Amino acid sequence: MTQRDSDLRRSVYSRTAVGRAGYAARPPYVMPTWLRRLLLVLLCLLLLLLALVACHEEQKPETLSGSTLTGARLTTGPICLEEAVDVSGSMLEYTAQRERAERELFAFAKRELQPTDSLATAFFAGSAQVTLPPTGLQSLTTPAPPPGQLKDDTFLVPAVVELVKARLTNPQPCASRALVMITDGVVSDIPAELETVLNAASYTRIYAVSPTSGRGALSGGLLDSVSVYEFHGGGTSGRIASVLNDARPLDVIFGDILADLTGQRLTKSDPDA
């Protein structure tokens, strides 16, 4: 029997649209009440988090010139700040930013610190040179001048050695002596030798200020206690880095370090003061 013969034997009613079931649309999806409430709670939490982040970002100082140290100074006695500035090839792109930050640091230190506090600066690559021996703020007139020609490579040890030697030019007691390393952390020093030199330098605090996330070679032993700060160059990427990594402009990081040494807080200046 063919298919056609089979269809002919079926009733006309069953072979017409009248006898077929009508189309029924699927009922619209209704979100469960518990799911709607959960999504609403999550949305509220997200908005609250965004508000807290925005408030936190708003309170951060944006420039060192527009900032001040607030609260009583807890460190009694002179603060001796020694800088070791990496000028190797990997840091050349940050030269202009660093020089602006150094000028801001100079003006800020003269304004906010005590006359007996001192600054010293050494530059390093494959060799090192001290261009500003330890100098009290009362007699400091200009930021550290740039170095002469240095050998290629990146060795931090010579910079620390030269900074220690330079202390003999202006010996003075220090209530707190800190080293600030401005470097991407990619150094060629033998770790054990670097740790020995840093131990001999008798720093109470060591800071690493880097344009990258991570310590590079600055880890292990004594170097695990280094306080690492990350700086950004501003713009949209800088704002994102500020939220995600708590990165700051380089000059503001200098202010944060000074506040850490004095036991004060770095805050925005009151424009009406």
Automatic annotation (TrEMBL):
<protein>
    <recommendedName>
        <fullName>VWFA domain-containing protein</fullName>
    </recommendedName>
</protein>
<dbReference type="InterPro" id="IPR036465">
    <property type="entry name" value="vWFA_dom_sf"/>
</dbReference>
